[in-house]
Specification:
By secondary structure, this protein is an alpha/beta fold. It is built from 8 helices and 10 strands.
């Protein structure tokens, strides 16, 4: 049996009297996109903050590639191959594409000087080969502030791929995007799979998640309410189940 890239077993998180997560079992396979759905307050943000090292679970176990890990921190999570792509605000809009990709992790030559040409070349390779930036108007020298929302998300994904992320967490990536920009973002997420990576796609819009995810996990009131393989369930049926969960807290 293939080892999961990521697995949470019986993970709970409490803040004082509040149970943000309760007995959560969650897995992400090799070369898989898992959609994480749930209303506001369902626990999605807490789960992601645990995965990215910002919060420690109150109880439970976390495994990366079959190995148990403890005391996760943001740097440790990156070492383990997980990168989070947040909404486009995470980019420096006055900087170029290559400057954004290597910000804080610049490449140097043998003498310790910044290797600007190598950073530009790597950016061009990733943009054209990994993420399908085909427009001649978009280059490593382009300023990010001129990009559409979908293209900005693409730049953030390129950055994660360069730093050898095996798992890319997309946190509400379609927020504020037009339909056209959202379609571009979905194509970028498909490229993540083509690159042999895995992704967790958190979004408030069921349609966006359904179109790109292999599997959908529904979180409600801090617990896993359901899990569905998208090719085995229609979008309408999934929407009906989401409404039922929101109203009753159960799929039954």
């Amino acid at each position: 049996m293939e080892t999961c890239r990521l697995e949470l077993k019986h993970v709970s998180k409490t803040f004082g009297e509040v149970k943000a997560l309760e007995d959560v079992n969650f897995s992400l396979g090799q070369n898989e996109v898992v959609g994480l759905l749930g209303d506001n307050g369902a626990g999605k943000s807490t789960l992601i903050k645990i995965l990215t090292g910002y919060h420690q679970p109150t109880s439970g176990e976390i495994f990366f590639n079959g190995k148990k890990v403890e005391h996760l921190s943001v740097p440790k999570v990156r070492e383990l191959g997980l990168e989070a792509v947040y909404q486009e605000r995470a980019l420096a809009e006055l900087q170029t594409v290559w400057q954004n990709i290597f910000m804080g992790r610049e490449l140097s030559d043998r003498l310790g000087f910044l290797d600007i040409q190598r950073m530009k070349d790597e950016t061009h390779r990733l943009m054209s080969q990994s993420m399908g930036f085909t427009s001649m108007a978009v280059s490593p020298e382009s300023r990010v502030g001129k990009f559409s929302g979908g293209e900005k998300q693409g730049v953030a994904i390129v950055r994660a791929l360069f730093f050898k992320a095996d798992i890319i967490v997309l946190d509400e990536p379609t927020m504020g995007l037009s339909l056209k920009e959202t379609a571009k973002l979905v194509s970028f997420v498909n490229e993540i799979k083509k690159a042999g990576k895995s992704a967790i796609f958190i979004d408030h819009n069921i349609l966006h998640v359904y179109n790109v995810a292999d599997r959908v996990v529904v979180l409600d009131r801090g617990r896993i309410a359901g899990e569905f393989i998208t090719k085995h369930i229609t979008l309408n049926t999934l929407m009906e189940k989401m409404v039922r969960v929101a109203e009753t807290g159960t799929l039954n």
